[in-house]
């Protein structure tokens, strides 16, 4: 898996990081201690100089001041070393952060490519299902427009494996919107919902909707003879 690969490589790259950080921090502590020792030495030399400066010869004063200056120089050297070490430590950690950012960017790009490829396959599958459903609807039109348990549009199965029809035959039409529905399930009727319960087919071969729920067209039983949906009835009246 790509995630495991990126993670494994990154963990390998930071395997020695804790030891390197510990060594640098230890060196910085040592430099701190040396600096504090030098500061104490400078304070002692300064106090000694102030106390005995009046009794010192000019050469002794110069020598004493040189010692103080040398201690200050050494203290500054330790401080510079500590700053350089801190910058080195920062760069060390920042390098791994940049590496992690780069790996995350590559992983996101790979994941995006895979998702786009998966969406393409799913869209192709949906197109195939849609083509099949249209073919089924055309064939059902040629067989006649009578509602029965045999010629009602097929119910699709839910993820649990039970048939959609078994779940909703006893459900009131107003409750259909609350039921889990396959997004690829074709819709029918004036309510634009999936097939459920008893349905009747319009006898107009050019009807754009074809199938209707009994409740949506105020039917309780299958009528005798030909039956036309409300839209087709209006169209037929206009033509007359």
From TrEMBL:
Gene Ontology terms describing biological process: chromatin organization; positive regulation of apoptotic signaling pathway; regulation of DNA-templated transcription
Write down the PROSITE patterns for this protein, in alphabetical order: ZF_PHD_1, ZF_PHD_2
Q: Which SMART domains match?
A: ING, PHD
Question: Where does the source fall among the domains of life?
Answer: Eukaryota
Q: One Gene Ontology cellular component annotation?
A: nucleus
Q: Which InterPro entries match?
A: ING_fam (IPR028651), ING_N_histone-binding (IPR024610), Zinc_finger_PHD-type_CS (IPR019786), Znf_FYVE_PHD (IPR011011), Znf_PHD (IPR001965), Znf_PHD-finger (IPR019787), Znf_RING/FYVE/PHD (IPR013083)
Name the segments for region: Disordered: 116-160
Record flagged with keyword Metal-binding: yes
What Pfam families does UniProt report for this protein, alphabetically?
Answer: ING (PF12998)
PHD-type domain location? 186-235
What sections of the sequence does the record tag as coiled-coil? none
Where Zn(2+) 1 binds, per the record, is at 189, 191, 213, 216
Where, in this chain's numbering, is Zn(2+) 2 bound? 202, 207, 229, 232
Q: Which UniProt keywords apply?
A: Chromatin regulator, Metal-binding, Nucleus, Zinc, Zinc-finger
Enumerate the SUPFAM superfamilies for this protein. Answer: FYVE/PHD zinc finger
Which cell locations does it reside in?
Answer: Nucleus
Residues the UniProt record annotates as site (Histone H3K4me3 binding): 188, 199, 203, 211
Keyword Transferase on entry: no
Recorded GO MF terms = chromatin binding; zinc ion binding
Which family is annotated? Belongs to the ING family.
Domains (record comment): The PHD-type zinc finger mediates the binding to H3K4me3.
Subunit organization: Component of an histone acetyltransferase complex. Interacts with H3K4me3 and to a lesser extent with H3K4me2.
Function description: Component of an histone acetyltransferase complex.
Entry protein name: Inhibitor of growth protein
Q: Which organism is it from?
A: Patagioenas fasciata monilis
Q: Which gene name does the record give?
A: ING5
């Amino acid at each position: 898996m790509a995630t495991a690969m990126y993670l494994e490589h990154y963990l390998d790259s930071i395997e020695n990081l804790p030891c390197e950080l510990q060594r640098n921090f230890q060196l910085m502590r040592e430099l701190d201690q040396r600096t504090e020792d030098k500061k104490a030495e400078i304070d002692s030399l300064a106090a000694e100089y102030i106390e005995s400066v009046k009794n010192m010869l000019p050469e002794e004063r110069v020598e004493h001041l040189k010692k103080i200056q040398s201690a200050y120089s050494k203290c500054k050297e330790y401080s510079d070393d500590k700053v350089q070490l801190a910058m080195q430590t920062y760069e060390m950690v920042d390098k791994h952060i940049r590496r992690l950012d780069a790996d995350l960017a590559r992983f996101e790009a790979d994941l995006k490519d895979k998702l786009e490829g998966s969406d393409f396959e799913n869209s192709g599958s949906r197109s195939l299902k849609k083509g099949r459903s249209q073919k089924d609807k055309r064939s059902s039109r040629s067989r006649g427009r009578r509602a029965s348990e045999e010629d009602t549009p097929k119910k699709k199965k839910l993820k649990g494996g039970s048939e959609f029809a078994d779940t909703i035959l006893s459900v009131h039409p107003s409750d259909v919107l609350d039921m889990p529905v396959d997004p690829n399930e074709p819709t029918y009727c004036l309510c634009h919902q999936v097939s459920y319960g008893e349905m009747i087919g319009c006898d107009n071969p050019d009807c754009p909707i074809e199938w209707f729920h009994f409740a949506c067209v105020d039917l309780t039983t299958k009528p005798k003879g030909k039956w036309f949906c409300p839209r087709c009835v209006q169209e037929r009246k206009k033509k007359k």
